[in-house]
Amino acid sequence: MESLVVTIRDLLIVLFLSAGLFLLCVGQEGPASTVAVMERREQEALYSAIQGFAGKWWNGSDLYPDPCGWTPIQGVSCDFSDGFWHVTAVNIGPLYDNSLTCAHNARFSHHLFELSHLKFLSFFNCFTLQSHKPVEIPFANWENLANSLESLEFRSNPGLIGAIPASLGCLKRLQSLVLLENGLTGRLPTELGNLVSLRRLVLGGNQFTGQIPASFGGLNELLILDMSRNNLSGSMPLTLGNLTSLLKLDLSYNKLDGKLPKEIGNLKNVTLFDIRNNNFSGGLIQAIQEMVSLEELVISNNPIFGGELEGIQWKNLQNLEILDLSAMGLTGTIPDSMAEMKRLGFLGLNDNKLSGNVPKRLAYMPSMKTLYLNGNNLTGKLEI
User: Fold this and answer.
1) SS3 at position 309
2) Which among 28, 167, 254, 263 has most CB atoms closer than 10 A?
3) CA–CA distance, 19 with 59 (Å, rounded to integer)
4) What angle do CA 14, 19, 24 make, to 5 degrees?
5) How far apart are the first and last CA of the chain?
6) Residue pair 200/176 in contact by the 8 Å Cβ criterion
7) Cα 369 off chain centre by
8) What's the confidence (pLDDT) of residue 59?
9) 114, 144 in Cβ contact below 8 A?
10) 379: buried, middle or exposed (CB in 10 Å: 19+, 13-18, 0-12)?
């Protein structure tokens, strides 16, 4: 009996050692246990690029065995292919406690464009007004990332100035371009219309001037278009009606003018249409009633907009929850049909030139929570 126990114990030891050797061998073939498998040229390019933003003090000496190993860089991600680690994402800025932060003299290095597998590149609060000197987005070398880059973001960088490089138009795989709340100026380059894979284009909170390029109407995959809080002027391009996949369109807080194009009626998937604080005119057009997916329609503070509420089939907008038509110079009466929007919870008609009796049905709208009618010449009262 004792010899049998010893034999079983010896057998288990042998099996354990064999399994360990097998796992060791397998581990040497996979990326998880591979040591220093990033090409030196790519590693040096990454380190040089990071030094440009973080400062010369940063040298990656505490990373083992490489930037994608057991102690990776916060904000840098890699994929394993063709037997090597490749950098696929670089995120610069104080997103996390141990994120890479920018020095006061942060700058772009040409080494950044040597990361030919890069898919995601973002900068958050990196270029500030306290920077040594303002920084511009590089105009050259973007073609080196044309076959890989899918997302490019600059958020909250007030020290990032200058125009959008037209060369960004070569990034044919780009799906997201976010230039939000920076110090960028100048006209929007028509070349951005070449980014036919874009699903999100956010340019809000800068100082862009000039007209909206008609070429933006070729971005057929676009879901989100935000150009709010700039100094854009001119009319809304007819071609924006081609963006039939669009979910959100925000052109608020600009200097846009002219009539709304009837082509906006093609935007049947749009849930947000916000053009507040502009100089549009010409009144409400019937194309609005064709935007049947609308949940938020905001046209307020277009003082010369004018027109009447009559003539729109409000009952078509059964998904509408927020309708702000305040301070638009509206005349005429409030049509009883506005009460047919069953989901409407906010209705702003204040500070217009409306007259006549207030429809009593407004008091019985099932979802209504906020109703502004002040600043008009209305009569009657609502009993709630």
Assistant:
1) coil
2) 254
3) 39
4) 130
5) 92
6) yes
7) 30
8) 77
9) yes
10) exposed
Q: Beta-carbon neighbour count of residue 171 at 10 Å?
A: 24
Do residues 202 and 180 lie in contact, with contact meaning Cβ atoms separated by under 8 Å? yes
pLDDT at 25: 33
* Residues 119 and 144 sit within 8 Å (Cβ to Cβ): no
What is the Cα 24 distance to its own chain's centre?
Answer: 45
Q: Which pTM does this prediction carry? A: 0.89
> How far apart are alpha carbons 218 and 204 in whole angstroms?
20
Amino acid at 366: P
Residues contacting residue 14 through CB under 8 Å, at least 6 positions apart = none
Amino acid, single-letter form, for residue 285: I
pLDDT at 274: 98
Residues linked to residue 185 through DSSP beta bridges, in sequence order: 207
Give strand pairing partners of 226: 202, 250
SS3 content of the chain, % helix, strand, coil (to 5): 25, 25, 50
Do 292 and 268 touch, CB atoms closer than 8 A? yes
Q: What is d(CA 200, CA 227) in angstroms, rounded to the nearest whole number?
A: 11
Nearest to 293 by CA among 315, 320, 265, 314: 320
User: Of all helices (H) and strands (E), which one includes residue 56?
Assistant: none
Chain CA centroid to CA 239, Å: 21
Q: Is 278 helix (H, G, I), strand (E, B) or coil?
A: coil
- Beta-carbon neighbour count of residue 289 at 10 Å? 17
Q: Are 220 and 194 in contact (CB under 8 A)?
A: no
Q: Are 341 and 362 in contact (CB under 8 A)?
A: no
Task: Give me the residues of the chain with pLDDT under 50, please.
Answer: 1-34
Instruction: Name the residue type at position 38.
Output: M
Nearest CA among 156, 160, 153, 152 for reference residue 183: 160
Q: What is the three-class DSSP state of 77? A: strand
pLDDT of residue 1: 43
